Write the structure tokens for this entry.
Amino acid sequence: MPATIRDIKDQTGLSLATISKYLNGGNVLPENKVKIERAINDLDYQVNEMARGLVTNMSRTVGVSVHDIGSLFCGILLRYIGDVLKNNGYSMIICDSRDDAKREEENIEFFIKKNVDGIIVIPSSQSKDFLKSAKKNNIPVVLLDRSITGSGCDCVRIDNRAAASLAAALLIDNGHKANAIIYSSVEYTGIERYKGFLETMSDAGMPIPEEFQMAGTHSIEHGYRSMNELLSKKNRPTAVFTTNYELTLGAVMAVNESKYSCPDDISIIGFDNLILSHVVQPKMTMVVQPMKEMGEKAAQLILFKIKSKDKDSPMEYVLNTSIEVGNSVLNLA
Amino acid sequence: MPATIRDIKDQTGLSLATISKYLNGGNVLPENKVKIERAINDLDYQVNEMARGLVTNMSRTVGVSVHDIGSLFCGILLRYIGDVLKNNGYSMIICDSRDDAKREEENIEFFIKKNVDGIIVIPSSQSKDFLKSAKKNNIPVVLLDRSITGSGCDCVRIDNRAAASLAAALLIDNGHKANAIIYSSVEYTGIERYKGFLETMSDAGMPIPEEFQMAGTHSIEHGYRSMNELLSKKNRPTAVFTTNYELTLGAVMAVNESKYSCPDDISIIGFDNLILSHVVQPKMTMVVQPMKEMGEKAAQLILFKIKSKDKDSPMEYVLNTSIEVGNSVLNLA
DNA sequence: ATCATAGAGCGAAACGTTTCGCTCTATCCT
DNA sequence: AGGATAGAGCGAAACGTTTCGCTCTATGAT
């Protein structure tokens, strides 16, 4: 039913090869160009991507596996990724891994079955099992947000240590001397932020005591429980750094439900400025990541990898973070 | 490089037709079945979906256009849609329309260019322009969450009037007599909720005065400004019904920043129970939609439409809502 | 014993592109 | 004027499946 290149051949009298050449950006005589364009218009022709894919072995599709499609963080990244891909004629097929390494691996298998040209992963864990099948099928992979140690993969992320240092510096500037950190110890990202924070504090002569280092999972629960624990101590910290969105959420919940208030009784500096900062009271002070840049860079990078088919040494883009100042940190200085 | 059906033919000595039949669930002799399965394993064979698609004219792909991929609401729906599709061997390609009718139309065009078998739309507006190209190409469309009047389209949604009635009934039960509504007057959904709320209140002998009917866009801003306006009135309402997630967010922000507090000075009943209800103080009372059921139903429906290739009269699934009770509504009774 | 029938297998055509290697024409240089 | 060259066009093969319509065998009924 839909028009094919053959219909265009019939209307223009040109050969399939010439028309195909035109469609793929090759040079044809101006008069022929006019003819072809008219025919395309008349017939409402659209390239059959499956036929094209069969020959070229390219689907013009990128698979994106996100650690949690229900998270705002991923949603925002997906927006920017999608924009770049679409503008380049690529579609994105999305799978949710729900923070589960096994599911993540299945997603990659699924992508391969669907003949994607490239894969972007917002990893759910440090597991690199999923890389195997991608490597085997020679499909380029770009990691976004969280890198995986020793993966040898292309990656777009922030400098997590530096970001945590920013947070530490801000607390120091505001005169806080009893500081705590609630972090995720199950991820590279979280551990880096932890290291950056501790190092900067130590360098400033204010090492963080063990009991103020709250390790745990990447979850609202961990944030919630840890904050409760901190608040119940005899010597409460004056400030807490929560190293990701979920932890920040949980910590804020805990404070809101307690008899204490922020920032008068406890200061909080969070991570990832999403909608949260507009709705909770007081307005949060947060370390923010350049979401737009991250998403766009990841998309551009995977497109480049697809086109260049290269074996170049993996690239790593490390983007800068900044602090958005709200009212959740009290000035003690 | 990857194995083809021809390699299986070589290893088993069977014909292409027989192997294809097996792959598509047809009957073959038990001994041949064993042979084929062994070959598939040995060769690590995977069907080339593009070749298959070229013949069958099916891509086993569904396009999903969401009104805002950055919204939690869409993220959650996408999770459930994705699960069902993937379990059925279908991939979903996602486009964001950012609440823009033009972009929505472009998304559909894009889907068609990509040869999707079916389309799910979480519409961004009442515009039905985008339906044209889908109809022309004979691709089934399922509307999710928001129906479009006169579209004649399959649809999965809640009964918005009934949902609003629930909210009204709860306020009435709690003895509220001065009630306001902040709603989106630019959407069918919002208008239905408005009607349901007003009707139930009228029936109870408590019609909502004009000045307590806050019409506007579907946005945090509208919720924020309207709540501020309501709070500044001499005769404040005792309760406010906010008819969607963004409006609820905005309204809560306004109250938090004001000298008033919820629920002591003003009660709020919101819509769409997302993470918000856990983090804001007090815990919100909300009308909740059955997200899982909605997503899954929409996916099942589009799969059915694709398979049955039918011209049946459009189906409409209307799901039930419920109320999740928190502490944001004061009992005056 | 003969015939009809059901089930399984097969060969070949078809799906709609791209691409390889060739021919042809027109241009430009010497 | 003759030869080299660049540019455009073309025919045909190839990509990896599915499917149509046929043949063949084995079974069961008469």
